[in-house]
Amino acid sequence: LWIFGYGSLVWRPGFEFTSRKVGFIRGYSRRFWQGDTFHRGSEKTPGRVVTLLEECGACTWGVAYEVRGEQIAASLEYLNMREAVLGGYDTKLVKFHPQEKDAEEPILALVYIATPQNPSYLGPASEEDIAAQIIVSSGCAGHNIEYLLRLADFMRYFCPQAEDKHLFSIEEALISILPCLYYTEESLEET
C-alpha cells in the first residue's frame, strides 16, 4: 500500500514504512482551508492546516510512503485516528507520479482529504487572514507556524521546480506580519 502525504506527513509520518518517494498527484491543489483544534490549534483558536481542492490542471507535490505486511494495519490505524477522527479527513485513491526520472507508471496511493462537509472545514480566506490565524494557533503537535514553515521548506528543498503560490504567499504574509521572525526548531518548541 502507498500513502500520499502533502502536509505534515511529508516530514512527520508517524508510522513505519518500507520506502518513500517524492512526487506529485494531478488534479488537486493544496489549500490551508482545514481547521485544526487538536494538532496545530485549539477549540478557542483553531489552527490552519492543508487539504486538497479538486482543480483541473493543478498538481500537488508531496511524499508517498510504501507500507508492507504488518505496517499496513498499524499505519492505517494510526492515520485513521490522526487524520480522520481528529482531523475530519476522508480517504481517496489517487495516481501518484514519482519524481525519479526513471519512474515507471504512476502508483495508486491512498490520500486523506478534508471536504467542505466536515465540521472543521474553514474554507477560503485571504493569505493575510490565514497567516494571522496561523500566528496565534498552537496545539498538541506544536505551533501552527512550524507547520507552515516546515511545509514551505519541504517544497523548497525537495521540489524546487514546483510552484505552490498559495503556500508561499501565506509564508510571505506571515513574515511581513512578523518581520523579526527567526525560525529554528528550538525557538518554536519554546513557544
Automatic annotation (TrEMBL):
Catalyses which reaction(s): glutathione = L-cysteinylglycine + 5-oxo-L-proline
Name of the protein in question: Gamma-glutamylcyclotransferase
GO molecular function, one term: gamma-glutamylcyclotransferase activity
Entries under PANTHER family matching the protein: CATION TRANSPORT PROTEIN CHAC-RELATED, GLUTATHIONE-SPECIFIC GAMMA-GLUTAMYLCYCLOTRANSFERASE 1
InterPro entries given in the database record: ChaC (IPR006840), GGCT-like (IPR013024), GGCT-like_sf (IPR036568)
CDD domains noted in UniProt: GGCT_like
Family of this protein: Belongs to the gamma-glutamylcyclotransferase family. ChaC subfamily.
Subcellular location: Cytoplasm, Cytosol; Golgi apparatus, trans-Golgi network
Listed EC numbers: 4.3.2.7
Domain of life: Eukaryota
Enzyme kind, highest EC tier: lyase
Gene3D superfamilies: Gamma-glutamyl cyclotransferase-like
Gene Ontology cellular component list: cytosol; Golgi apparatus
Gene name linked to the record: Chac1
